[in-house]
């Protein structure tokens, strides 16, 4: 049985959603938002730069997310929200969320609410926000790739939480580097840093709770600079090669990382080449 708070997180129970959807007026923003939440929970960014977006509009980014979802399941990639796709998306997202414990579901619901308040994210905004961090951490040829990855990693707060118990199980079998990468993939665990420091020590606390943005930036810079093949792809501004190399973004069934990384990398590279950016 699906817990009631799952329906709260998704926005509407499916039966009510279908009753509204099949009315003469057709779907409204409220109904579209339900499926944007489903896509986000299943790891398909509905906004630009691999960012989640819940705006009630079936735009190009949502259609891309729908097509990616369909393609990875062997379905016709037509981005049509017909009855079969609506049922499948809703059931899969509801089952995924229901598998977590109640506190994790509550935190994820809160994160989905935050997505609705996010301002539009543009390449200009990313560069203005993170210019100093890029200058401090990577050489100029790596900056477009740094911005492209950070534009996803900085918004990990809008992705579903990994339950603490599961993370601790993983951490026991991971190297420190693997733990940092997993923290980057799974986003913030919504507990105070002091909680982790007291129980697991400072090193584990940083891996478990990357709420400090500097931690995200350090991880992205280290990954770009420590992996020779990835660095070469980043310097060549080859987003497809980068995504192939970043297998750790792709090897989980629920969070696939920056699906729009090649496009984002190209946009940042073009913007930086055309117009030097100075802090606002």
Arithmetic mean pLDDT: 77
* Number of helices, counting only DSSP H or I runs of 4 residues or more: 15
Order of helices and strands: HHHHHHHHHHHHHHH
Number of strands: 0
Number of domains: 2
Biggest sheet statistics:
none
Unreliably modeled segments: 156-161, 249-259
Strand percent estimate: under 5%
Shape: globular
- The helix fraction, in percent, is 55-70%
Radius of gyration: 19 Å
Distance between the termini: 51 Å
Q: By helix and strand content, what is the structural category?
A: mainly alpha
In short:
This protein has 280 residues and is mainly alpha-helical.
Notable traits:
15 helices; mainly alpha; 2 domains; 280 residues; globular
Structure write-up:
The chain has 280 residues and is an all-alpha fold. The chain folds into 2 domains: 4-115, no CATH class; 123-274, no CATH class. Helix content is 63%, strand content 0%. The chain contains 15 helices and no strands. It is globular, with a radius of gyration of 19 Å. It starts with a helix and ends in a 6-residue tail after the last helix.
List the helices and strands and how they pair.
Blueprint: H1 4-10, H2 14-21, H3 29-41, H4 60-72, H5 83-98, H6 102-115, H7 123-137, H8 143-153, H9 164-172, H10 176-186, H11 193-208, H12 213-226, H13 228-235, H14 239-245, H15 261-274
